[in-house]
Write a structure and sequence with these properties.
2 domains, alpha/beta, Rhamnogalacturonan acetylesterase, hydrolase, five-stranded antiparallel β-sheet, Rossmann fold, globular, five-stranded parallel β-sheet, RhgT-like, Jelly Rolls, SGNH_hydro, SGNH_hydro_sf
């Protein structure tokens, strides 16, 4: 992929920035360019907000096959093929944020920044730019246009099974869900590895989300993996008492801001019984989510149930192919596992007849967790950034 970058629009006047990428590569210079040492990773300095990104795909002399990810490997376009000599445009919405929080009033308690973990401080998630990654067998992007937009936003709150994992081979369903949505809604994934509901509050992550939402937005909430750990006394929340109370607090905070709430039960860990069934480790927490959903009249996507059906359908040996670290990690997923769980979440939106289902890509075939696609035939272009470190909360 060639890469000359030319600012064609006046961003101060038009609030639209366009770049040609069909000449010599230019390194990121504090305004725009390719990230040094990261082939195919292109950034533009951008203030927080939602942006419509339009990419022009196709090259004059060869066919192209391009996958586009944004920020921390959030999947936007998957394997778009263009014949030689043809060009097409594709658009999607990217949410950009930073860690700043509006300062509290004089003498009021509060904070001015989210308490980021060391790994987050080096992430494209929390910086001052919009970052695009072009990968695939034959990527071919010749132009990029970025413009601010006002669209509804889906906020994701959760743990390592939801967050945008920055490095291959780990992946989570939250960073795959975007591929199933239409280009008229943004996804702001505030989930983070190792988080429980209490720590999400203590680290000011909830405060950041609450100041960012607007009426008409949606909050999708999935916790449980870390809340259940009694050996983490500062964040432990018992499933029959405090965990339910925290769920009610989150629901109430969003409702009073005019934000719709969807609860999601946590995907199960891959632990087997002697008779080849998944041994539940999160059942009490899934039951608590369902109970609060009924009590508060909040829709619940039953991802815990779907994940068990997926793993058992694959079987003990093939289920390894859905997990991080070659299957040695029984909690976190790889690209295939994350994609399948995201597809189950999208199907949950449809099954529950949720308003947000109107933003799903048209023509999605019905998904049955008991019949997942074969992992051996799954293909998703990998990112260049890799790490052998498992996500927090394992």
């Amino acid at each position: 992929m060639a890469a000359a970058l030319i600012g064609l629009a006046n961003p101060a006047a038009a609030q639209v920035r366009s770049f040609a990428l069909d000449g010599p590569a230019r390194a990121y210079d504090g305004d725009h360019g390719f990230e040094p040492g990261m082939p195919g990773v292109f950034s533009v300095k951008t203030p927080p907000g939602n942006y419509r990104v339009t990419v022009t795909l196709g090259l004059p002399k060869r066919a192209t096959d391009t996958t586009v990810k944004v920020e921390a490997r959030r999947l936007m376009l998957d394997g778009v093929k263009v014949p030689a000599g043809k060009r097409i445009e594709r658009s999607f919405i990217v949410n950009v944020r930073d860690a700043a929080i509006v300062p509290p009033a004089a003498n009021a308690p509060g904070a001015t920044m989210v308490d980021l973990k060391p790994r987050e401080k080096a992430s494209f998630t929390w910086d001052d730019r919009l970052t695009l990654e072009f990968v695939g067998p034959q990527p071919g992007v010749t132009a990029v246009r970025i413009e601010p937009v006002q669209v509804p936003t889906l906020f994701l709150l959760g743990d390592s099974t939801v967050t945008d994992q920055s490095f291959e081979p780990a992946a989570s369903w939250g960073q795959m869900l975007t591929a199933f949505l239409t280009p008229d809604i943004a996804v702001a994934n505030h989930a983070e590895s190792g988080e429980a509901m209490k720590s999400f509050v203590m680290e000011k992550r909830l405060a950041k989300v609450l100041e960012s939402v607007k009426p008409g937005d949606t909050a999708m909430i999935q916790f449980g993996h870390n809340d259940q750990k009694a050996n983490w006394p500062q964040t432990f929340a018992a499933s029959d008492t405090t965990y339910r109370s925290w769920l009610r607090v989150f629901v109430d905070e969003f409702r009073r801001r005019g934000v719709s709430v969807i609860l999601v039960t946590s995907p199960e860990r891959r632990n087997w019984t002697d008779d080849g069934r998944i041994r539940p480790t999160l059942g009490d927490y899934a039951a608590a989510v369902k109970a609060v959903g009924v009590e508060q009249r909040v829709p619940v996507i039953k991802l815990n149930d779907a994940s068990i059906r997926i793993y058992e359908a694959l079987g003990k040996d093939r289920a390894l192919l859905a997990f991080n670290d070659g299957g040695k990690d029984a909690t976190h997923h790889n690209n295939y596992g994350a994609w399948v769980l995201a597809r189950a979440v999208a199907q949950g939106m449809t099954d529950a007849k949720l308003p947000i289902a109107a933003h799903l890509q048209p023509g999605l075939a019905p998904f049955d967790p008991a019949h997942p696609p074969a992992p051996e035939s799954f293909v998703l272009a990998a990112s260049a950034r890799t790490s052998g470190v498992r996500p927090d909360g394992n």
